[in-house]
Amino acid sequence: MKKTLILLLLSTGFSFGQSKLKPEIDKKASSIEAKVIDWRRDFHQYPELGNQEVRTAKIVADHLRSLGMEVEEGIAVTGVVGILRGGKAGPTVALRADMDALPVPERNDLPFRSQVVAEYNGQKTGVMHACGHDTHVAILMGVAEVLSDMKSEISGTVKFIFQPAEEGITEPGVTSWGAKQMVEEGVMKDVDAIFGLHINSQTEVGSIKYRSGPAMAAVDNLNIEVNGRQAHGASPWSSVDPIVTASQIVMGLQTILSRNVNITQHPAIVTIGAIHGGIRHNIIPEKVDMIGTIRTYSDEQQELIHKRIKEISVGIAQSAGASAKVSIDELYPATVNDADLTLKMVSSLYDAAGKENVIYHEPITGAEDFSFFQKEAPGLFIFLGGMPKGGNPVTAPSHHTPDFMIDESGFLLGVKVMSYLAVDYLDLKK
Ligand SMILES: [Zn+2]
Ligand SMILES: [Zn+2]
């Protein structure tokens, strides 16, 4: 029933926050569009890997300071936080951008293409903003400038969070997990709600995508070690064959999704990505290692799947006289957009992009560490179109590839929508 009501409200464009500041935001955003594009080109040309965003962070911090904000640097190694205190009392809303680039060599003719080379996992590689985080930083710097301009009319506080290392740990010795560590260092303590966006190279410029509830998956790494008894390949009866046992485990794991998980609630994925065992055609080895990935959208399903993976692996190994050790590393939790908050903010998305350009998206099996912020306060994470109008989403280069390309004409909407979300939320709560 509740679901039906929410959908009905969404489809009628039921609206909550309606800040009077929007015309002023539009004007200011348009006046700084060229600056936002310039910032982004500069970040694009000089990308930095996770926790090494020193240059980027300095430009961000200098900009926020020039706007008169209180600025804190060096959070989670290279993170920056700026505080904009409005002229009127109210809650605190956070806006987040991630700053890191990827070990991907750039392949295009852009005059501002990256020629940066860095060492990654002991290898020299080109570095590129191949996920578009350069656009996130530039857009949020623009939002900071827009909202600073109307500070006296803002009812509450806007916290600008510039986060390092969204893509994960880059090298041994670098221990910050971007969002997770920022949370551990207290950035969410006084935050009532948080908003974030991700540019998307396969969504047309001018569009916004969103989803209520679990929108992106939790990701866990799975490791299974199967131990048997080594023997000559010609006398298998004297072995405990870990290859046959591992094969049974792989097949057994597939029954979790077909027989244990209530798939009407959420999708889930268990993938074995690599199997290593043995060295020669006539030796049954002692041990097989398997690694894989698990994607889930709820804590309950995640727990159930972990439990069944352990039971199935250990049980099958035992039945063969072998043994199995299972370890699961939980990486990012699911990105869950708070249903109540999403319902309240959808009118801000409509106002920014036009209702016909706001698309409700399917669950995404990728992960995003924005989820750590959402564990601390209700949050909404949206996608912003970055593909040229008329482009083909199937053939447009995807994120994390050398041909990744973003249309700069999409940034203005990014500045507007993040500004709208902030002021509408604060208005709603005042
Ligand atoms: Zn990425
Ligand atoms: Zn990304």
Description:
Helices cover 35% and strands 27% of the residues. The protein is α+β, with helices and mostly antiparallel strands and 430 residues long. Strands 1-2-6-3-7-18-8-17 form an 8-stranded mixed β-sheet, sandwiched between helices. A 4-stranded antiparallel β-sheet has the order 12-14-10-15, with helices on one face. A hairpin with a 3-residue loop joins strand 1 and strand 2. The relative contact order is 0.20. Mean pLDDT is 94; it is low at 1-15. Bound molecules: zinc ion (ZN) (2 copies). One zinc ion binds at residues 131, 133, 166, 198. Residues 131, 133, 166, 198 line the site of one zinc ion.
**Can you tell me the residue ranges where pLDDT is under 50 for at least 5 consecutive residues?**
1-15
From the helix content, strand content and strand pairing, which structural class follows? alpha+beta
Number of strands: 18
Shape: elongated
Across the major sheet, the strand order is 1-2-6-3-7-18-8-17
Report the β-strand fraction as a percent range. 25-35%
Determine the mean pLDDT: 94
Q: Tell me the quaternary state.
A: single chain
Spatial gap, N to C terminus:
30 Å
Bound molecules: zinc ion
Q: What is the overall number of helices?
A: 11
Largest β-sheet summary = 8 strands, mixed
